[in-house]
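User: Could you go from structure to sequence for me? I need the amino acid at each position, not a summary. Structure tokens:
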């Protein structure tokens, strides 16, 4: 089995949807996971055209760097000529997961399943606002230790300790009297943690 230790050297991408169209007009999610750190991305998109996918990937790459390799399944939007040209221009090697060997695509499939379960929980009051819950879902998963690496993905990606919701609450407890704002902050962080833990 290939071992990737350098962050964002190899990523896996996939599409989730169609989902209920949100107020912002999004019906799909482009998902991405870094194979070394298990750092996830998930961005709501209105359609799954190659142009839309390329634009979203460029936005992600502008923040995290350009990977050497992108792995995906054989969905036509992900292997179109325009996507191949995008990868060529960015110096990215495109690899396809074997149709009868899903283990090579396992990390992204697990991320997709976890994400959808968290979104169902967080947006149970309004299924048409799931895209507004993506930052909360990402926040929770990035800050929780990953089962495979034993570390929070965000710490593996950035190479340092990161101040998350638990640290914020601890600081508040050490510096202020417990009040309604603190209770709300704790409740929110606890809800994120419970939603994530139930799905893993």
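Assistant: Here is the amino acid at each position, in order:
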């Amino acid at each position: 089995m290939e071992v990737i230790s350098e962050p964002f050297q190899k990523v896996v991408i996939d599409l989730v949807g169609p989902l209920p169209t949100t107020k912002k007009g999004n019906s799909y999610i482009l998902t991405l996971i870094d194979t070394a750190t298990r750092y996830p991305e998930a961005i709501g998109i209105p359609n799954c055209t190659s142009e839309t996918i390329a634009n979203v990937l460029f936005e992600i790459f502008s923040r995290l760097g350009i990977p050497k390799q992108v792995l995906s399944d054989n969905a036509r939007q992900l292997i179109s000529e325009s996507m191949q040209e995008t990868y060529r221009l960015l110096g990215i090697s495109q690899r396809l997961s074997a149709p009868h060997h899903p283990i090579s695509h396992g990390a992204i499939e697990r991320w997709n399943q976890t994400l959808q379960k968290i979104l169902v929980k967080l947006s149970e009051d309004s299924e048409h606002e799931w895209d507004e819950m993506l930052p909360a879902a990402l926040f929770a998963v990035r800050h929780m230790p990953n089962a495979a690496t034993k570390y929070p993905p965000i710490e593996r990606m950035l190479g340092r300790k990161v101040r998350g919701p638990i640290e914020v609450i601890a600081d508040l407890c050490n510096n202020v009297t417990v009040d309604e704002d603190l209770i709300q902050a704790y409740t929110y962080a606890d809800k994120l943690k419970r939603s994530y833990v139930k799905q893993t």
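One structural detail worth keeping in mind: The mean pLDDT is 85.
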